[in-house]
Write a structure and sequence with these properties.
mainly beta; Immunoglobulin-like; 4 domains; 6-stranded mixed beta sheet; 3 helices; about 5% helix; about 50% strand; binds 2-acetamido-2-deoxy-beta-D-glucopyranose; membrane; Ig/MHC_CS; glycoprotein; disulfide bond; transmembrane
């Protein structure tokens, strides 16, 4: 190639040209690497005389570098080895190549009275990064799988989806998005309805791009059969100036990674929380102290999960109760998901509570996961509303007709601060959160946390008991409706996650 280009130069320079300039073109360089733009020259019938020599490099009409007695560089990251000039090497080096440096360069060599020049093209290549952001799918439903390809250059790219080596029909690839550094991103979508036969089968996202060493890159993965969470928000009666506890009850999801956010009038109030490992249920509490302006405010619990294309949002509207007035708490159930597992549309539930009812003690059912896996942690939650001063929450385990008191949730502080997990013994931890309401009444939220054991938890029922100051049992709730799964070590959590879905309510 150099010879052909040189001949061309010779013709340009005229029949008696003494100077021949040669380049290699095009040149390809990886983004961020050091690129050599090769330009060499020969002088016929004479040695190269430095006093007759000048070299100029141009890019986009601008002079990048020049040598004329001394070297002059117009911007950082560019260099030329002047010691090489005597041997006819006028190559330019670009350190840390960027996408904006792609294009045509001109190497002009003058050896008085002769001159010669050549153009060369630099192509900047950036290797794509491939990621499958979510492998979780819902069984028997059309799922959207995405393959995110980022940071590549040039823009030309092909993305192919494969199932066990067979090509799957994907949506047409959208136009790549340009990043600030000039590289591109694109996301390929595949709508796929998985069945049992897809379990354990290798799926791949194959990318073909000029920057890839072997022209293609394949990312293999297996589908994860997920279950969307069911979300409920529980709110107490709102009283101005009194701290309240709201609970967001998130049930039956898989895989376990999940984020729960609390929003006040649509504005996030807390950083997302990720649940502890190994649970399929999560209870998130939000402490709220209404002021007069809180009337009509909307408190929401927002749940994000891999199986949801949009978060599930459950909201409560604040209706403050004043002395002698009727209480009404409107619970708005807003479905923010397209998943068939969630409630469709918008439903309104109106709860009316009389003044008498407000003052009566009530306890929630125990909330806990429906599938227990030995070795994994389980947390059971029970909430007592309108507890009078001195009310305590206790937990007990009932097995083979024998009742064993296991832990006592005794709130040491009544300032509404969250208590640390108190180790009762090596097996159980209890956290009781107490929030005072008016006239010595309070909301008590008690959580029992423990590691599931087999056979110790086979057929066991757990009881949460609220006891008044004078020792009366106010309420006893029992939780025994769960399935003890075979050990996680032998089966792993990915096996039949659909079993994690609790019974429809
Ligand atoms: C020309 O000089 C560069 C350094 O500027 C060097 O990397 C390259 O190998 C040289 N080319 C030849 C043909 O000597
Ligand atoms: C290379 O250039 C990029 C973009 O200008 C810059 O972010 C990066 O820090 C540079 N790297 C080095 C090693 O200089
Ligand atoms: C491209 O993808 C990268 C990595 O996933 C991401 O950080 C970046 O924000 C994306 N750029 C655009 C323009 O979406
Ligand atoms: C939770 O899981 C992550 C990774 O899956 C692990 O790094 C972390 O130690 C686990 N935490 C607990 C409390 O088991």
């Amino acid at each position: 190639m150099g010879a052909r280009v040189g001949l061309f130069s010779l013709l340009l320079g005229g029949v008696c040209a003494q100077l021949e300039v040669m380049v290699d073109s095009p040149v390809a360089a990886q983004l961020g690497s050091q690129a050599l733009l090769p330009c060499t020259f020969t002088v016929a019938n004479a040695p190269i005389s430095p006093e007759y020599l000048a070299v100029h490099w141009y890019f986009q009409g601008q002079e990048l570098a020049s040598y004329d007695d001394s070297l002059s560089i117009s911007r950082p990251g560019v260099s030329m080895d002047t010691e090489q000039l005597a041997s006819g090497n006028a190559s330019l080096v670009l350190h840390n190549v960027t996408v904006s440096e792609q294009g045509a360069y001109r190497c002009l060599v003058i050896h008085s009275p002769d001159r010669g020049e050549q153009s060369l093209y630099l192509a900047v290549l950036a290797v794509p990064t491939v990621a499958i952001p979510s492998k979780a799918v819902l069984r028997g439903e059309p799922n959207l799988l995405k393959c995110s390809v980022s940071g590549f250059h040039p823009a030309d790219i092909a993305v192919t989806w494969l199932r066990a080596g067979e090509v799957l029909p994907a949506s047409p690839l959208p136009a790549p998005q340009r990043n600030p550094d000039g590289t591109f991103n694109v996301s390929s979508s595949l709508t796929f309805q998985p069945t049992e036969q897809d379990q354990g089968v290798a799926f791949s996202c194959q990318v073909q791009h000029a920057a890839l060493p072997r022209g293609a890159l394949q990312t293999d993965f297996q589908l994860v059969f997920g279950v969307s969470p069911m979300v409920n928000i529980h709110a107490p009666t709102f009283v101005q100036g009194k701290a309240q506890v709201l609970m967001c009850d998130v049930k039956g999801f898989y895989p376990e990674a999940i984020a729960v956010n609390w929003l006040l009038n649509g504005v996030r109030t807390e950083a997302p929380r990720v649940n502890p490992n190994g649970t399929f249920n999560l209870e998130s509490f939000y402490q709220f102290k209404p002021v007069a302006e809180s009337e009509g405010a909307e408190i929401s619990c927002e749940v994000q999960h891999e199986t949801l294309s949009r978060p599930i949002v459950r909201s409560v509207r604040v209706h403050l109760e004043y002395e002698g007035t009727q209480v009404s708490v409107i619970v708005l159930l807003v479905s923010g998901t397209v998943s068939a597992l969630a409630v469709a549309g918008v439903a309104f539930f109106l709860y009316k509570r009389s003044r008498a009812a407000r003052q009566m003690f009530t306890a929630s059912d125990i909330v806990g996961p429906k599938v227990w896996v030995p070795g994994e942690y389980v947390s059971l939650v029970c909430i007592g509303y309108h507890c009078s001063a001195g009310t305590e929450a206790t937990w007990a385990k009932c097995q083979n007709e024998e009742l064993m008191p296991i832990a006592r949730g005794d709130p040491s502080g009544s300032d509404g601060e969250e208590q640390p997990l108190v180790p009762i013994n090596s097996l159980y931890k209890v956290q009781t959160q107490m929030l005072p309401l008016d006239k010595g009444s309070a909301t008590l939220a008690t959580t029992l946390m423990f590691r599931v054991r087999s056979p110790e938890d086979l057929g066991a029922r757990y009881q949460c008991c609220f006891i008044s100051k004078d020792g009366r049992t106010l309420s006893t709730k029992e939780f025994g409706d769960y399935t003890l799964r075979p050990s996680a070590q032998t089966q792993g959590p990915a096996v039949d996650p659909a079993a994690a879905r609790p019974a429809e309510e």
